[in-house]
Amino acid sequence: MPVSGGFAGVVLGVGRGFAGVVLGVGGFASAVLGVGGFASAVPGLGWLCGHRGGFVGAVTAVGRSLRSRGMVNERQAERWNGESARRWLASRERHAAVRERLLPHLYRAAAVRPGERVLDVGCGCGDTSVALARTAREVVGIDISEPLLREARRAEAGNVRFVRGDAQVDPLGAFDVVVSSFGVMFFDDPVAAFRNLRRTGGRLAFLCWQDALVNEVFALPLRALGAPPAEDPFADPVWIRQTLTSAGYHGVRVQALHEPARLGDDVADVTAYAMESTLVRDLAAGNARARSLIEAAFAERQRPDGVWIEAAAYLVTAPRQGRDAGGWSAPIRGGPRGATGRGSARSGPAGGRGR
Ligand SMILES: C[S@@+](CC[C@H](N)C(=O)[O-])C[C@H]1O[C@@H](n2cnc3c(N)ncnc32)[C@H](O)[C@@H]1O
Description:
It is a single chain. This protein is an alpha/beta fold. The chain has one domain: Rossmann fold (3-Layer(aba) Sandwich), CATH 3.40.50.150. Strands 1, 2, 3, 4, 5, 6, 7, 8 and 9 form a nine-stranded mixed beta sheet that branches. The longest helix is centred in the first third of the chain and has 19 residues. It binds S-adenosylmethionine (SAM). S-adenosylmethionine (SAM) binds next to helix 5, helix 7, helix 9 and strand 2. It comes from Paractinoplanes deccanensis. InterPro entries: Methyltransf_25 (IPR041698), SAM-dependent_MTases_sf (IPR029063).
């Protein structure tokens, strides 16, 4: 197996990172717990589930052995191979519509050039991988969800392929660019995961959602029902920068994006979608007016061609990083090889609620 040479290094690396968290690096441990807590709340959400919820060739022995002992991303792996995958596939077109005006920001930031190799983390059904493969020499999409990868593989072609694996722990090899469209928010240990991504040596560009009470992809029903703030660390640019810096990235930038997004056809459609969420259903329980409050909130956004909301995301970037000497193992089958700043972009109509 090509991984044999780097195997010990990876195991030790993972072990160290994991123990560091478990043994409790004070503040970070609580941040990680925050991630876990939010992640467990959200995947029940349907729409938010999409929000929250390994290279390659096959899952490596490292990832397999850790997961089989129930240590890494076990809950997320279960969700994304079960209920979350089912819901995600059922809402694939809706999610594509919601991301339509955000993805160009990601592609611009990634600035993939011909000849470059790209890793798409949490690639899902592979749409971003396929889009990037129009320019890149090769794109590898990595995901823990077999049902979503089955869809992705329909689009597998000469220079794009998909592998099942855990981006937090599996050896990734070397890439010029690491991108992700909302696929990096699910790790048990974000620092360890981003450290693993950094080992690719590639520059980084990913999208994650802003606060769920601000980002109207989720916010309208939550606000209508008086939901408390969600503890989502990725909604905090300071936490994002600290986490990436702890993982060894430098030059991290977090840019706020606001774009109009078509959430669905009409009020009935988007209300039904929102009500798939366990959180929304829990908030609505015992409140006879809940559905009408949600409908009223969506009715304000009804336009002739659908219900439009303002999607609010962060675009996170970091320049090309040096390769770590250790902890990196050779890719499988010629596979992957390889200041803080914040700005704000607002495109589309003022306020972002039109088209
Ligand atoms: C919100 S979906 C985004 C999918 C796709 N990038 C898109 O924009 O349509 C999140 C994806 O991350 C994947 N994922 C979650 N944890 C992962 C991990 N540890 N390693 C690889 N993929 C993971 C899920 O299976 C899911 O496909």
